[in-house]
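User: Please look over both lines:
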Amino acid sequence: MSEDNRIGIGVIGLGYWGPNLVRNFSVADGCALRVCCDLDEGRFRRLAAYHPGARFTPRVEDVLQAPDVQAVAIATPVSTHYELARRALEAGKHVLVEKPMTMRSDHAEELVALAEKKGLVLQVDHVFVYSPPVIKIKELVDSGKLGRLFFIDSVRINLGLFQRDVNVVWDLAPHDLSIVDYLLGRLPRSLSAFGSTHASREIEDVAYLTLDFGEGLIASFHVNWLSPVKVRHMIIGGSEQSLVYNDLDMAERIKVYNRGISIPSQEADVRREVPVTYRSGDIWSPNLPNQEPLARMVADFIQSIKEGKQPITNGQTGLRVVRILEAAQRSIKAQGARITL
């Protein structure tokens, strides 16, 4: 692709996640890394040697006002997402923003509306949605091979990294909430959440969320910064088959189980007690490609800009996740009160 046809990229924030974005945008087809920004000049000095074709600056204005930048990736603290994304959209830039999109649903709604008004792409960095295991799970759910979904149990726990501006729900839960949103494409009808504080009086470091999607489907999430072991585990139970997704098992990240119960049909004689029967069949693990999720996400961002289409993790998906997080926070502060969405 010629230089003139490439989309110029600016990256704001070079802390934990920003360098990964820089690395992927620097090699992605159809784009060119133009400007990188961070308040800590030491951070971009370390990256500058590896990306001589890009400019490095401590000034956000140098990114937003750059005529050779058509799209901006934002990887800064959550509390800054709304302001930076709004300014980028107002400057006519397409936006990729780290998760969660904002800390308030009304701010998320504003960004979605602004992007739509200006005809710009707004994408949220829900990177797990682009991972081969999650794409395969989506395929299995959509194909009906699991049958009607009964439950989703998710555990994402480890020791630290403690955040200063958000609690463990806002930090870890967006990953699994975005996966479930990708699988189901809708908000739950209600939720309840509990959380507790240990290292800080204000910031919860252990939390449990329960989402009711109706039609018998319940999803539960355990997030924790205090666990001595790292666990990335999700179980999805269906009427036909169930699966276990273990993101730390490099050999078999997904296992599909033909095990469960057989439920009598609704046409069965309700006057008789029909016993539940059990089935125990094969277990199989699908072969998954070895592809970096972030590279797939960056490619989706660039393609969406070029084709004028919505990316998979678009602003609406980010908004739904923020609404759940916001409701979960209200429930935690109300001692687990049920919140209707």
